[in-house]
Each structure stands twice: as structure tokens, then as C-alpha cells.
Amino acid sequence: MSIRQRQGIWHVDFYAPSGERIRHSAGTADKKAAQEYHDRLKAQLWRQHKLGEQKPRSYSEAALRYLEACAGQADYDSKVRYIAYWRQHLGHLMVGDITADAIFDGLPTHKTYKHQGAQPLTPATKNRYLATIRSMLNMCVTWGWIHHAPKLPNFAEPKKRIRWITRAEAMSLIQHVPQPWLRDACILGFATGMREAEIYGMEWSQVNERARTAWVGDDQTKSGRARSIPLNEDALAVIRRRKGSHPRYVLSRNDRQIRGGDDRMFGRAVADAGIEHFRFHDIRHTWASWHVQGGTPLMVLKELGGWETIEMVQKYAHLAPSHLAAHASTVTFWSQGQEAGKENGNEDCALVAVNY
């Protein structure tokens, strides 16, 4: 038989026109579905042998080449994790057989936490799963492995909040942080707007105290673009204080590299300071908000923060309405007309408002 059942799962087993033996799982317990898969695969192999069509590529082949192409990217570890997840659900399919329905059927809906049990996944988390498989399939189109990729619309995400605190609240927060390394990480965040991973990954070789700058490499940034970071007095104070604490990294914990912050410790400090709904990443939002409130142009802020597009910093524009006020007088006419009328002794011009 060309299809056989083993432990409840159907397998295909036949010889292709080229003489190659095809033997693997159909990935289903449904005999009819397995037979359809067998017939479709056999027809593909016939067209490949007789008509010169390209060999069907498996999910595993696509995943391997995709990860090779993404090697070195800042989010490479995340891509590996998502590709491994999709392999459980799509690994038995050829790339050309992966449909939107198969992807959405395999999309996770919950995540189980040790103390909270199963919690529904947010739309943003689901979209990250979709982004990886979408990217891989689009690359398959580029490679000529498939003619087109299935359309995978994102889930609607709630608008991102802009949470920032005042300078007085920031001072109180820092004073309530018990560990010096986390306290210095907060100060660097408020002073430079660096992301958490950039702060903990900063090495002494990336700091030029005399030039009052630091830089992060393209392998450390979210955008994949290296950037220079100016250091103000607050940041320099941390740099000077941390000298000698670790031979390689500016910030360290128990003489070791810090690979991630302590959300629980940070959360307790936030609560003790009387602040609500504030995460470590909100320090970056606060830094950007302070800049805009202080008059820093959005294009300058974009470069300082390492954002890719101006749209990413436009969300802070409302915090500085005064930056538009100086341009409002460019198109005034009413008050200017009244003043001109008074100077020329023409009361009709000055009182035109009551005669229209």
C-alpha cells in the first residue's frame, strides 16, 4: 500500500518517477486527508520529473536556510524559538502546502505560568509568531521555492501607551532601588534612553569618557543599526563609579555579566515609590518625553534614540505643544489689521468686527 498507519498516524510510502523512495509521515490521523496528501505529492513529483518543475521543498529545508540567512541579527534567538515552535505544527508539510488556515490553526492561544496558570496570549505576542513564519515564507518566494506566500493579516493591537514620570518621581524611584547595579541601570536609562539590553550589554571598549560618548554595535540594537550615545553628567557619574567593577562590562552583578534585569526587584521599588503601572522600558519613554518637553526636535530625538522612522517618535509630539506656538503668528491678520487701522487713524478698519 502507498499509505500505511503507524501508531494512529498515516505515512506515505511510494517510489517517485525518478526512482527515489518517498517514505515519511503524512502528519494526520485522517485516512482521507493522508490519501489526498499522497496523491498531491505524487503528482508534484511527476511534474518535477516529466515537466522540469522545481523540487518541492520541506519546512525543515526552508527553516534551515531561513535561519542561516538571519544569523547575526539582534533577534536571532527569538527567530530560532518561533521556527522551532512552527516545526511542531508545520514540519510535516512541504513549503508549498503551508496555507493560512494551517498557520492560524497552529497559532498558540495561551501561555502557562507557574503561579498564574494558563493566560491568553496578547495580539502582539500572536503577531510575533506570525511575523516569523511570514518572513520565512516570503523568503521562499524570493528563492523561487514557491510562487506566492499565504496572506497572514496581523491581529489588531491596542494602541501603545506612553507612560512617563516626573523628575521627582524618578528620583524617588531610584532612591527605593536596593541594589547599586539596578540603581545605576535606572540612572543610565533616564540619562541616555538606552534600551535595557543595550545598558546591560555595554562594554568598557564602547565608552569614550573623554569624548563623553558611548556607542552600541549593530548586533546590539533593535534596529540593527549602530549608533553613538552622548553621555551627560548623570551618565558619566555612573561610568566613573563603575570603573574597576568588571573587566569587560560597565554594569555587572556579583562580578558577572547581567543578562537581564530583575523585574521583581524593580517592581517593588516602583511600588515603594508610590508609582503605578511603570515598567523598566518606560524609563526610555520618560527620557524621550523629557526631551520633547525640553524642546528637543523630533528629528534629533529620532537619532538620539535610534528609532528607524520619524513615525516612531511622533507619538511624543503631543507632549510639547509649545513647539508650534512660535509659528502660529505666521498667519495672523486680524490683530495686525486692527493695529494698522489705529496707527492710521482709521477707526472703520479697527472696528470692522462689528460691521460684517
From TrEMBL:
Identify the Gene3D superfamilies for this entry.
Answer: 1.10.150.130, Intergrase catalytic core
Under InterPro entries, the record lists: DNA_brk_join_enz (IPR011010), Integrase-like_cat_sf (IPR013762), Integrase_catalytic (IPR002104), Integrase_recombinase_N (IPR010998), Tyrosine_recombinase_XerCD (IPR050090)
Domain of life of the organism encoding this protein: Bacteria
An example GO biological process term is: DNA recombination
Check the record and name the CDD domains matching this protein: INT_Rci_Hp1_C
MF terms in GO: DNA binding
The reply to whether DNA-binding figures as a keyword in the UniProt entry is yes
Which spans of this chain does the record mark as coiled coil? none
One Pfam match? Phage_integrase
Family statement:
Belongs to the 'phage' integrase family.
UniProt-recorded name of the protein: Site-specific integrase
Its organism's taxonomic lineage begins at:
Bacteria, Pseudomonadati, Pseudomonadota, Betaproteobacteria, Burkholderiales
